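Schema walk-through. Below, the input block comes first and the output block second. Nothing else is stored per chain. Lengths vary across the set, and this one has 358 residues.
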Amino acid sequence: MRQNETFLLVFSEMYYMEPDNIVKLDIKDRKILSILERNSRTPASIMGRKVGLSKSRVIGRIMRIVKSGLIERFILDLNYAALGITTYGFYFKFENTPEHFEQIVAQYLYTHGAVRWFCLTQGEWDLIVRFFANGEEEIERFEDGFMNKFGDHVAAKVFCISLFDTNHLCTQLTGNEGSYYHQTKKYHGGPMRISKQDYRVLFWLYENSRISLNEIAQKEGMSPNVVAYHVRKLEQMEAYFAYSVRFDRAKLGFISAKALLNMRRITPQRRDEFLAYCDALPIVSHYRVILGAWDAEIDVDVKNIRELYVLLRDMRNRFPDLIRSFSVLTKIKQFEANPFATLAGKKIAKENVPNFTI
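--- output ---
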């Protein structure tokens, strides 16, 4: 048996447990979440007509689900090609960390201003960080800043560049199927021109994609008509594919894991077959092609680690000419930060940093 297979079987017993805080949902809850995943800006009145509830009862249900933690954030699914943005990543292995180290790291990353996402993991790496940067100077600035603050505890690190991303809909929860893979692939528009006002609007939409235009206007000192103009402009230029939501799948009893794949040289046709295969799997939540220490990453949500083992075994058997080897990380805790803060001239207050302790 291969080392990675042994790893998966050993951790299956360690990580599979029934959480005490599984969120209970009825059919109407799931219908509301299905609508929000497709378009989180859908008015409560329209959702009410579709699910057979009053506007006030829809709002009440959304507030209850948000309070439960199942909805982590109302967010934008960004079109990086249109925005002219490249996402970079670092993977860190730590040693000799002090008490409350995770929260100190979270405070630094969440308030950074260019960090998009970070995650504590179990496995070969302890922390993954994804951030926006405009060229080598900003990449070096991020690395130098992090290492100056936490370098004494960094045992190892690797760097990667994200070349292609897909976001898959949460089929297990909402019943929605598919991903934004085809939309990403077909984009040929080239980078758009983004003004400072565009970034200010993007900042608030990324903070909460259900925010009203009047709220953005009040926060930015703009008129609602001006805000509406920038929103229409961003939509027409395909700055993002959808107003959507991020779910905490652990609240439904799922374990989130990441498979890091080393792949052989592949033809475009075989690559598309592999992407179509991933696109059709409901347990896959994300797929990423990278330039770095490995070639691709697949994020999955499974009921137990054995389910992940079966998936990876079947994937390797189906594509033996593509997958050379893989390693697995179990996600422990993750957060999405606002990567438009610096571009919009904003500062994230330290008191807004979520709890990152374990």
